[in-house]
Design goal:
One of its GO terms (biological process) is L-methionine salvage from methylthioadenosine. This protein is of the alpha/beta class. The protein is built from twelve helices and 20 strands. The strands form four sheets. Strands 1, 2, 3, 4, 5, 6, 7 and 8 form an eight-stranded mixed beta sheet that branches. A seven-stranded mixed beta sheet has the order 13-12-11-14-17-19-20, with helices on both faces.
Length: about 475
């Protein structure tokens, strides 16, 4: 996370560090003998911020990995700078951290690094990995949080469910590292980057707190249980987030409800992330096998988009999906990555398009699938499905089984009313972001297990209810 050359200036050296994330791992780079500082230590993409850090970090990504920001790499967020002093180098550093998502793990190393490894961020905390100073602190500044998940209105439920698991994983990983450091009588890295003794914990938000030396599984369990509870409350309408967090915690608890702590949660969170990503990929693969001919869709589902890109549709009709118009993003992506004809139309035209055009199948994602087989998804899905039923066009809902809700009740989120009307007239505005499509308008739910009929969903809900007893 520090630059490739040293400097003798007395002023703090401003540097950028980028964490590149693919799926749920980040890219760790080992600094080579060609650099001036921290040789042989692991870090992220880094370099001096001579000018604008936001511009410099993209330059460093391009030079050190061969990836092109804006194409295969997209910004997620930047974080508050991390300031610290390295007494060995007699140097003050100010690190500007960034998180980017990558479409690939194929990178081309520059001479500044001699090795690269994609691994969970918690690998930064492992004893056998020497990292540049304050690497974990920099990562924490850009890592997903309960707050970022609650505020995210750009990504789908499956994406956010994995981010929720990452929050659980990261905190469990830090507690495991504290347990190991405490047992060795060493200093423990603080959440704010400052070391503390074994008698001091590293509470969330960097606040000071104390606990007795040595591992305290009960304390870890209480903290991680509370964190899991806050994750469940962050997006109460997202069944997939709830189910996957419940699976991770149930897996940690296992058959022994009295003696589990951070190590068990870390292991279970890692395996649940792997399972979740595999399920989403398999779901898209199963859906792709059904997508040929002419297809109609709406909104932006990452799994549906992946299925459309892997399938062989000859034409795709995409409703623009107002007010955010995320359908336009899908259409542009398909136009760039597939050979099919892509047509965009207004939301109000969905019934007319299905009546006039030769559409073979409607394919949509799902925020939640209710136990009776009805589907909660982006507003407009119900209109599209009802119109498809009128025209005898099959409707395929693409959703991993983790999206099945264990509850009959529905909590529908609404968007900002100003997105619909921001004028001065005395006009009320409605901006419902989700609607419910009846089960009798759904032909099948395509999952990682294959295609399920709406009537088969109740059995899946029963399985998922067993995970809620942790």
């Amino acid at each position: 996370m520090c630059p490739d050359t040293d400097t003798t200036s007395d002023d703090p050296a401003h540097v950028v560090t980028a964490f590149l994330r693919h799926r749920s791992d980040v890219c760790c780079l080992r600094r080579s003998d060609a650099v001036g500082t921290y040789r042989g230590q692991w870090g992220g993409v880094s370099g001096f911020a001579a000018g604008n850090p936001d511009e410099q970090v993209r330059t460093e990504i391009r030079e050190e990995t061969g990836l092109e920001p804006g194409e295969t790499v997209s910004i997620v967020r930047s974080g508050r700078p991390v300031a610290f002093e390295d007494p060995d180098l007699e140097r003050e550093w100010v690190v500007h951290p960034y998180l980017f998502d990558c479409d690939t793990r194929e990178i081309e190393l520059s001479e500044e690094h001699d090795a690269a490894e994609w691994a969970p961020p918690t690998a930064i905390l492992e004893d056998d990995r020497e990292t540049v100073p304050e690497l974990w602190t920099a990562y924490e500044r850009v890592a997903p949080t309960v707050r970022s998940i609650a505020a995210d209105d750009e990504h789908g439920a499956a994406f956010l469910s994995v981010r929720a698991l990452e929050v659980l994983r990261d905190r469990a990983g830090l507690l495991v590292a504290e347990r190991e450091e405490s047992s060795e009588g060493s200093e423990i890295p603080r959440a704010n980057g400052e070391p503390v003794s074994e008698a001091t914990s590293s509470p969330r938000n960097g606040e000071r707190g104390t606990r007795e030396p040595g591992p305290r599984p009960a304390d870890e369990r209480d903290e991680l249980t509370e964190l899991a509870g806050r994750l469940l409350e962050a997006r109460p309408s997202m069944a997939v987030l709830r189910n996957r967090v419940n699976r991770a915690m149930a897996g940690a608890a296992g058959d022994d409800r009295d003696d589990w702590g951070a190590p068990a949660v870390l292991e279970s969170a890692l395996s649940t992330i792997e399972r979740a990503l595999a399920a989403d990929t398999e779901t898209a693969t199963n859906a792709a096998d059904r997508l040929d001919g002419s297809v109609a869709t709406l909104s932006r589902s990452g799994t549906v988009l992946e299925a459309l890109e892997a399938g062989e549709p000859s034409r795709v009709f995409v409703a623009e999906s107002r007010p955010a118009r995320e359908g336009i993003d899908v259409a542009e992506r398909l136009a760039a990555t597939t050979d099919c004809t892509v047509t965009v139309h207004t939301d109000a035209a969905v019934a007319a398009v299905l009546a006039r055009e030769d559409v073979d199948r409607v394919v949509v994602g799902a925020d939640t699938v209710l136990p009776d087989g009805s589907v909660v998804n982006k507003t407009g899905t119900r209109t599209l499905a009802v119109a498809a039923a009128r025209e005898a066009i099959p409707v395929s809902v693409v959703a991993a089984t983790a999206k099945v809700s264990t509850r009959e009740a529905v909590s529908l989120e609404s968007g900002d009313r100003s997105a619909v009307y921001d004028g001065d007239a005395a006009i009320d505005a409605l901006n419902p972001t989700f609607d419910v499509t009846p089960a009798d308008c759904v032909t099948e739910i395509v999952t990682e297990r294959g295609a399920l009929a709406p009537a088969e969903i109740e059995a899946v809900a029963t399985e998922l209810r067993d995970l809620e007893t942790w």
